[in-house]
């Protein structure tokens, strides 16, 4: 019996057509060793994955960058509020110390500096305080500065009365700079030396005297030592080329024009001391720095 042929094959042989090739049968390929993962390795990978997840849950979380920014901004905000409170609210902070003055007290400084109580040194301008204190006629000079941590120091040099000069209506007490410290209606309550020979006009508190002869008289008294200052009672400046100083004993000292008034003041003090020590009867003393002499009474 011949080989079984399909009708389609029979037709192809009858007409001389080539046989139809059968399609090749493809079987699924076996997985390679690299792609094949044994069950045991898969289980190990799964175990490691779960362990990492558990450790990540147990590990404390770090604050994010946003949290640090919030903390920083919050801290800065609190500091700004604290500074504003100390700058503008009546919160006590620090103190003011006054030194060097026998006339000006701490209460005077607070009043003249327009400083409210309680004292808060952060609200005080040292420059403005110093400027206001210079307006006090009792103060010759003042220095204000800050000292760590919260203290303000006020160093004051008092004005020291030096001499008295007559005005139109009263007597003016002058300091070494010629500033009118106060006025008196009479001389009975003062022990200061007086400048005579000149009568000034209407003198007001705080005025600064500019008359050259009066300024020479002030310079004479201010150049003496405290002990020498107590020896003299007067200087007459009525004649510009013949200034005469007088001791409390009435001894006259001729100063001429007073060109070297500072040297003459020191020399006068020494010569008066010598006369007293030797108990001399003196008519007058010529205080010429180049050739001083003592005129004895006959």
Molecular structure report:
The chain is α/β, with parallel strands linked by helices and 298 residues long. Among the domains are: 64 residues, Ubiquitin-like (UB roll) (Roll), CATH 3.10.20; 136 residues, 3-Layer(aba) Sandwich (Rossmann fold). It has eight helices and twelve strands. The chain has a nine-stranded mixed β-sheet, with helices on one face. The chain has a three-stranded mixed β-sheet with strand order 1-3-2. Strand 5 and strand 6 form a beta hairpin. Helix 6 packs across helix 8. Keywords: Cell cycle, Cell division, Cell membrane, Membrane, Transmembrane, Transmembrane helix. This is Cell division protein FtsQ. One of its GO terms (biological process) is cell division.
- The mean pLDDT is 84
Question: How would you classify the helix and strand content by structural class?
Answer: alpha/beta
Q: Any guess at the CATH architecture of one domain?
A: 3-Layer(aba) Sandwich
Lateral strand order in the biggest sheet: 6-5-4-7-8-9-10-11-12
Order of helices and strands: HHHEHHEEEEEEHHEEEHEE
CATH class call of one domain: Alpha Beta
The major pleated sheet works out as: 9 strands, mixed
The total of beta strands comes to 12
Unreliable spans: none
User: Could you say which overall geometry the principal axes of the C-alpha atoms support?
Assistant: rod-shaped
